[in-house]
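Methods — Computational structure assignment.
A single polypeptide chain was analysed. Its primary sequence is given first, followed by the predicted tertiary structure written as structure tokens.
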Amino acid sequence: MLDKKGMKKYLYTKNDNGTYYKPCFCFDIETTGLDFKKDKILEVSLLITDRNLDVVFGAGYDSCVKIKPEDILLMDEWAEKTHTDSGLLYECLSSNAKDLEDVDEDLYKAAKKVLGESEKGILLGNSVHFDRYFVQEHLPKFHTMLSHKIIDVTSFLEMKARVKPEMPSVFKKSAHRAKSDVSNSLRQIRNFKYNIFDKS
């Protein structure tokens, strides 16, 4: 079964009973700070998964966002040092970085590839409500592709600490780069799927 774009839609948007469900958009951003009104997005990473939390082939996106030198003034000492040490600030100031409007358009197109006409994707990640605020403020086209629902991996981690601390952990310290952090979030939620939901 192919949709009008030639993609095998049923592989990741159709349940066994024929009803559609919402794909997960595993998402992470890096920013100049915590205030979504005044701070800037530095980097985004998106992985789109099917019902088994497997990444849909060819469905994802990564980009650094172009900033101006004066945007660095928005950053506190920790953020400036962290993003300098990781090389992110250098990349955001380079010619390879993309304008925010182009990043928004790219994310929108990536989402459209896997969504039906009336479908929305569920944002998934660590403390992903934080990312959602920045998406709503700075990435309006991509925001139209999102459900109001989210899957916050941090909530699962907090429950694990309280009710099943013996469960194996796959946590990796954040590298404060979107691509590695989004992979870490996906690794963590898959761990919960395998150790709790698949075994229940």
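Note: Residues 10-187 form a domain with the Nucleotidyltransferase; domain 5 fold (CATH 3.30.420.10).
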